[in-house]
Enoyl-CoA hydratase/isomerase family protein (Pedococcus bigeumensis), 274 residues
Amino acid sequence: MSTQPWWETEFEDLRAELREASGRRIAVVWLDLPDRRNSMSTAMTASWVRLMGLLRTDAALAAVVVTGAAPAFSAGGDLSWIVKDPDASVSDLRSRMLTFYRSWLAIRDLEVPTIAALNGAAIGAGFAVALACDIRYAAADAKLGVPFTSLGLHPGMATTWSLPNIAGHAVARDLLLTGRIVTGAEAVGLGLVSQSLPTDEVLPAAIAAAERIAATAPVATRLTLQALRDGGHASFDDALQWEALAQAVTLATEDLHEGIAAAATKRPPTFHGR
């Protein structure tokens, strides 16, 4: 088995670049099939699964930024195989779709914050990957949407869960039932993205956010991420119980004492994740 680190590994239809900040690693990932608007090819999907596996084992990883090779983020899944196999059974199609969903949604298994930099169109499954990330920044004129039903498809890639979770049921019903496309600028008001910017500023903004995350205490950040994912806690009391335990865990870390000392002397802290 190869022990080559992820940033030195070659991927097909995908590339990953190492950035360093505050002594930790940031992965910047490009969906890289620009002549097909970064549609999710079989090769890209395999590369993504491989990369996610490598990232999960990187103890020094602080954050992951995902973007697309210009001009798009991703046009979504490659549906050409459906035309080539019109007689496939429902059982076979279901199995294939579940494998595809789980492959791309594996980004949710990472224990570090993930950031989508939507530099251009993010459509269907492409937008679903962005919705699977913890934070999203978008180009003001980027086209975003989930027009599954306009193709005769039921929505996929967990969008019937992720859209209501992120933007609420009213927005989810609007986008999923009408199939309408929104711009990055409109998406801010809908709660779909945190900020819209000129196209050339989207990736730098996402990397800057990743660098701010890298400067925070790793244990505290990972516990906070777990508290926030999947719609947060089921109840107010569940939140209190989790926070009482998770905050106690961080109170027992060396990083807590470093953070207090740094604040007292007005210097940046140096955290070590312990």
Observations:
- Residues 199-214 form the longest helix (16 residues).
